[in-house]
Design a protein that fits this description.
Keywords: Cell cycle, Cell division, Cyclin. This protein has about 150 residues and is mainly α. The chain has helices spanning about 10, 15-20, 25-30, 35-55, 60-75, 85-95, 105-115, 125-135, 150. It is built from nine helices and no strands.
């Protein structure tokens, strides 16, 4: 990993702010507004955080999972990738990337325990299949610079 953010490949991958909060054309056709899109992202970010609290991962893993979630939806539509499945998969992928691995079956267990709504439920195979789709959506780029290390120094 590069020692300097401004010379890193992560800096080269940055997306302008006006391109981040854009509703995908497929979602626009279905009537999703920008405000609803932002609310969905906030809700699913909270879902990542709650799930992460149950599986007891570090803050860095949570931040990476949220970053992956936001990156996915700058490229893909909510119609293509169901956010209720993308959320635990982002946490699963982030735990691997941050070398703090959480088993998929543990995520499935806690989702069933904390979500009474059947729509949020998923199986291990669903998470593993979505992992490959997420890797493609992220262009296999999993590097995330977090402010935690510089803040501690």
């Amino acid at each position: 990993m590069a020692a300097n953010f401004w010379t890193s490949s992560h800096y080269k991958q940055l997306v302008e702010q006006d391109k981040i909060d854009v509703v995908h054309p497929i979602d626009k056709e279905r009537g999703l507004t920008l405000e609803e899109f932002k609310l969905i992202k906030i809700h699913m970010t909270n879902h990542i955080w709650r799930l992460a609290q149950h599986v007891k991962v570090r803050q860095r893993v949570i931040a990476t999972a949220v970053t992956y979630f936001r990156r996915v939806y700058t490229r893909k539509s909510l119609t293509e990738y169901d956010p209720r499945l993308v959320t635990p998969t982002c946490l699963y992928l982030a735990s691997k990337a941050e070398e703090s691995t959480v088993q998929a079956r543990l995520l499935v267990f806690y989702i069933k325990k904390m979500c009474t709504d059947e729509k949020y439920r998923c199986e291990i195979k669903d998470i593993l299949e979505m992992e490959m789709k997420l890797l493609e959506a992220l262009d296999y780029y999993l590097v995330v610079f977090h402010p935690y290390r510089p803040l501690l120094q």
